[in-house]
Amino acid sequence: MRIRALCATAITVVVTAGPAVQVAHARGDLDCSDFSFQEDAQAEFNRDRNDPNRLDDDHGRGRDDDIACEDLPRRVSPVAPIATPPPTVSPLPTRGVRGGLGGSSGPSDFEVAAGAGLAVGALGLTLGYVVYRRRLGSGS
C-alpha cells in the first residue's frame, strides 16, 4: 500500500512540475546565426558591452570595433518608431459608489455556501472511503 501511495505521489509531482521544467532553462549562448539582421545583433550586443556572446568577434580581421555581426545584412530602411496617439481621457463616474459593482465586490452568499458544501462533501467522501478501506482490511 505504501509503495502505491509513494508511486502515486511521485507521478503527481512529475505531472505537475514537469511542464514547468522548460521554463527554468536559461538562454544559451547567442551567435550571429541566431539573428536575421545586424541591427538585432547590435541591440543584443548593446545590452551587455562585455560581449559574453562574442557578437563583436571579427574572426582575426583586426581589433573589435563595437559593431556586432558585421557580416549580417542590414535592414533596407531604418525602423522608425511609430507615433502613438495620445490616450483618450475617460470621464469620471458621476454616480460615485453606486456606479457599479466593480472588482471589489466579494462572492455572493450562494457562492460561499456552494464552496463550503463542496469542501464538506469532499471531506465526508474521503472519511467514508478511509473507514471503508479499514473495515475491508480488518476483515470485519
TrEMBL record:
Region span, Disordered: 42-103
Transmembrane spans: 112-132
Keyword hit for Transmembrane helix: yes
Basic and acidic residues bias: start-end ranges: 45-74
Keywords: Membrane, Transmembrane, Transmembrane helix
Full protein name: Excalibur calcium-binding protein
